[in-house]
Every structure is written in structure tokens, then in C-alpha cells.
């Protein structure tokens, strides 16, 4: 397996080396291909990603990615959108599960759900028209796009409780009438139990009754917002991992961004990046190793070795070291 390692900017440069340290502790036959993308590259070369970078990414089986700072350039085209589209990684999988011993804003810890976010269209179509006094962004929902994300969500639901919640705003957006209809058809044909929720009501419901949900499927922007919001349920944005999966490639990244407010201080929580690497191990078929990484993360929390976002005083590298050592010794 060949893995592109993209640290990116800000805390990406702090949390990805830690995730790689834990990966190295497993001593697996994985070739790492470091690649610089993002704001740092843009400052040096005027582009955040180029054709050659895309070729390198395509030559790898998957990518472990940190985060990228959005450059202050009106013509800047998002690196992440480019990669997700070029490699056609249409399913963004974001598990929201509390870690033992940690609670988030609601004080609940009896939930375990996954947000499956459509990743290539919706509000992030990049079809935009900008004038001085008005700007348009085209929201694209296709049958093909909806069908394949619904299939991914149903596949996951079948491995779990077989329950799917389709999140949409079809009372206002005609594009979501199509999304809802296609998701219902797919769920019915796959034999998955399904219900649906309007996205605004869903935001309230996820905060109030997160235990009611298993697999949640939704369009691009709604999934982006609901997943950051759901991070508050588990206690920190620094805990939530994600996978972007296509038919050929996959791309693993923490849900958080480059966090310029804490970058360089050595206090970023590396767990989201480590758990993203764990999702990569699962995708590669290293199930046993994935379980080991998760238990090492749980060990660090039990030992109260946590970063300041969780109320602790450990540094990024302290947390990484205890997790890597635990992996090495078990
Ligand atoms: P952010 O996710 O970087 O930070 C939001 C808040 O959460 C900040 O207070 C930050 O300190 C905290 N936080 C995030 N990750 C943390 C961690 N691992 N440990 C402890 N605290 C953590 O979002 P923000 O500030 O809106 O965006 C910063 C930059 O990142 C922007 O340029 C944005 O465009 C970019 N971004 C990039 C993403 C990506 O590359 N996937 C995703 C989201 C934002
Ligand atoms: Mg986001």
C-alpha cells in the first residue's frame, strides 16, 4: 500500500506527524509518500495544488491528510474540493461516538451515529457567478450522486442497526425533493429501515436525542455543518475523524481545520488525526491494528493524558507518545 501523507497547514503540521508516529509503531508494510499542499505551497508557488500533485495522489492507494488554511485570494479554488472531485471520493463518512470517560456539551454518552455526507455536489458544486451586487451559487443534486451516496449509507446501515435517517430541506429546496426521493427508493430496495428529517429540526434533535440515530445521510453543506455541530456532543472538534471514500481511492482527515488560533503552540488534540488514520487501517483491512489504535487512544484518556481542549495539560506530542507506546507494547 502507498499512502500520500499531506500535513497541510497550521495544526495539520502538528497532528499528522503524531498520527504517522502511531502508524509507524504498528510496523506495517506501508509506503509513505510525503506531499506538500495548501497555503504554504500557495505562498511559495502561487498555487495550492498542481497537476503533478494530483498525479502523485493518484499514484497512491489513499491519502492521510491534516488540514489546509484557505488563502486570502478571491480566485482560490479549494484544494479539498479539487481532490474530492478529481479522485471522485463521493462519500464522506463521519462517525460521532463518545470516547469512554469523555462527555460533551449535552452530558450524554449513550449515542453512536455516523453522518454520511455527499461530497461532490450540492452547495459545493463550484458553479458560481459573482457580480458586484449579487452572487449566485448553484446547488446541484443529481440522481446518480444521490443514488451512490444512498447506497454507501445503506451499506453502512446494514453493518450497524439497519436504520437510516435522510436529512434534507425538501419543503423549500426542490433539489432536495429529488435527493429525498432517491434515498427513499434506495433504502427500500436495500431493505434498510428509513425515516427522514428536515435539516433544521435535525440540528435540534441531534443535540437533544443523539441516541435516536444510527446512520444519517445528507447533502454536502448540511453534512458539513451537522458534523461540526455533532463534535460538540463528543467534547471537542479535536476528536472527530472522517473518511472520504470513492470506488477507487480514499482519503482520511480530521473533521477540524488548520486552527490558526492554536497552531504552533503544541496543544492541538491529535486524536481526530489518529482516529482518521485508524479509519484508514480499517479501509485497508487491518482490523486488528485499528482496534489496537482505538484502545490506545482510550488508554491515553483513562490516564488523563489529554490536551487543553479536553481540560488536560498534555501537549500534542505527549499524547502522541503515550498512544504510540501503547500500540508498540500491546
Ligand atoms: P477549525 O476547525 O480550524 O477551528 C475551530 C476551533 O476548534 C478553533 O477554536 C480551534 O482552535 C479548535 N480546534 C480545531 N481543531 C482542534 C484540535 N485538533 N485540538 C484542539 N482544538 C481544535 O476551523 P476554523 O478556525 O474555522 O478554520 C481555520 C482554517 O481551516 C480556515 O482557513 C478554514 O478554511 C480551514 N479549514 C480547513 C479544513 C480542512 O482542511 N479540512 C476544514 C475546516 C476549516
Ligand atoms: Mg467543515
UniProtKB/TrEMBL annotation:
Task: Please give the PANTHER family that the UniProt record associates with this protein.
Answer: DECARBOXYLATING DEHYDROGENASES-ISOCITRATE, ISOPROPYLMALATE, TARTRATE, ISOCITRATE DEHYDROGENASE [NAD] SUBUNIT ALPHA, MITOCHONDRIAL
InterPro entries cross-referenced by the UniProt entry? IsoCit/isopropylmalate_DH_CS (IPR019818), IsoPropMal-DH-like_dom (IPR024084), LEU3_arc (IPR011828)
The GO annotation for biological process reads: isocitrate metabolic process; L-leucine biosynthetic process; tricarboxylic acid cycle
The molecular function GO annotations come to: 3-isopropylmalate dehydrogenase activity; isocitrate dehydrogenase (NAD+) activity; magnesium ion binding; NAD binding
Question: What EC number(s) would the UniProt record show?
Answer: 1.1.1.85
Keyword Metal-binding on this protein? yes
Q: Per its UniProt record, what Pfam families does this chain match?
A: Iso_dh
According to the record's subunit comment, the protein's assembly and interactions are: Homodimer.
Which protein family is named in the record? Answer: Belongs to the isocitrate and isopropylmalate dehydrogenases family.
| Keyword entries, A-Z | Amino-acid biosynthesis, Branched-chain amino acid biosynthesis, Leucine biosynthesis, Magnesium, Manganese, Metal-binding, NAD, Oxidoreductase
Q: Which cofactor does it need?
A: Mg(2+); Mn(2+)
Q: Which class of enzymes does this protein belong to?
A: oxidoreductase
- Any idea what this protein is called? 3-isopropylmalate dehydrogenase
Enumerate the spans annotated as Isopropylmalate dehydrogenase-like domain.
2-323
Q: Matching PROSITE patterns, A to Z? A: IDH_IMDH (PS00470)
